[in-house]
Protein: Histone deacetylase 11
Amino acid sequence: MPAGTSWPRYIAAVSAMMLSMFAGAQTVHVFYNPLQDFESRIESEKQKLLIAKQKDSSAAVAPSTATSTTPSSTLPSS
Structure:
């Protein structure tokens, strides 16, 4: 095992680490309530994305005033 520890000591240490990780995550959720406004945040981000897409598509549809013409001097002669 790592660092010369026995299996029982290693399993006990990993179990204690996992328990403290779960307890810490639960503490965060109890005190800070990170998922309380989850649905409203998703809806506001969807609205922002929709507005951004509409702005991008309206800018892409606008006609260009520049025309691309090739001068006759660069055309190959036939």
Observations:
- The chain has a mean pLDDT of 83.
- Residues 2-58 form one domain.
